[in-house]
Amino acid sequence: MANKFWISRGVKLIENIKYFWIALLLLIVSSAITVQFPHAVPFGETIMTALHFPPQPMNGLQYVGITSLILFIVSLFFLTRSLERYHKRAVFLWILVTIYVPALVVNSYQETFATGIYAVSYDRDSSICEFEMIGESNMDGECELVFENKSEEDVQFTVTFYDKHQYDDELLVLSLMNDKTPFVMSLQGKETKTVKLRKKIDVSDRENHVDWASTSSVHIIMKSDEKLRKL
Question: Is residue 82 within 8 Å of 90, Cβ to Cβ?
Answer without folding.
Answer: no
